[in-house]
Amino acid sequence: MNLKTISKKLNLDLQGDPSFEIDSLCSIDSPKKNSIVCVSKAKMLDENLLKNAGALLIDENLFKTFAFPKSSNILISGNFKKSFAEIACFFKTTPSEPISIKYRDIKNIPTNTDSLYIGKNINLGKNCHFGKNVVIHDNTHIGDNCYVGSNVVIHSNSIIGNNVSIQDGCIIGSEGFGNTLSNNFEWIHICHLGNVVISDYVSIGSNCCIDCATLDSTVIESGVIIDNLVHIAHNVHIGENTAIAAKTGIAGSCKIGKRNLIGGMVGIVDHIKTADDVIITATSTVYKDIDKPGTYTGIMPISEHVSWKRIAFWITKLDKIVKKFNIKKP
Questions:
Q1: Which of 97, 205, 310, 327 has its CA 20 to 30 A from that of 220?
Q2: How many domains are contained in the chain?
Q3: What are the pLDDT digits (tens) for 174-221?
């Protein structure tokens, strides 16, 4: 649709060419000529973005403070997150109804086809094995020598490499937990347009959920092993040969380094980065970046946040206090 249509539907001010055609919503890292890129902070703006994006969605306060070229196509919003959520919904497509693989024209049909249901444009590698009641949605690629257990759902546009094992009950590529509040304090869901990419030799235990990215890809690199009941949220990137134990939850947009060992019931808050060769002990909460290799533990009793910040501050100073007053360590 063109910018004039989008601006009218969402009640946005428009600078630029109202007839300019838009066909996608893209991230800042991969702008395209006919795409909209959403920019909330001035530090995100650079010459490459202004040159290559078809149009920008900008918060009105940022528009007032930054000198945009007159030639730029800009949608100006008084409620940036709400507008982003609404634009994302414009480009969300509904997958086709999966039907029995028997009725699809597809190469490398596995022998156990009784309860394998697939959408359109599915690419299956050689020597793949499927359990009962597996559903694979449109535009999905699965490599050679893969095993997919019973009751697994693989959502549209997923890319799965060679020699991957996905155990029973997993959901790959489901919608991420991305929401924003309206001015009336009602939740608006942000449609997710990205996918999941799983590299070679990955092992995923039973009942795991790996959410698709908001715009780009949630990535599981090669050699990663994941235990049962693990949740990996949208936009997460897991480095190669990392091991994740059961009941761990990794929130959105985290970047986990290579060869990390993550214990059971670990919680990692959003936008965290970890270095390579990090060990996180069981039941830890990770609330800040880990920038060097080592073993880390983060366990604190729940309390009011203001109190917790004071306690955490003094805990980090205990070693210095001991040295200053020459206190004998236990």
A1: 97
A2: 3
A3: 999 999 887 778 899 999 999 999 999 999 999 999 999 999 999 999
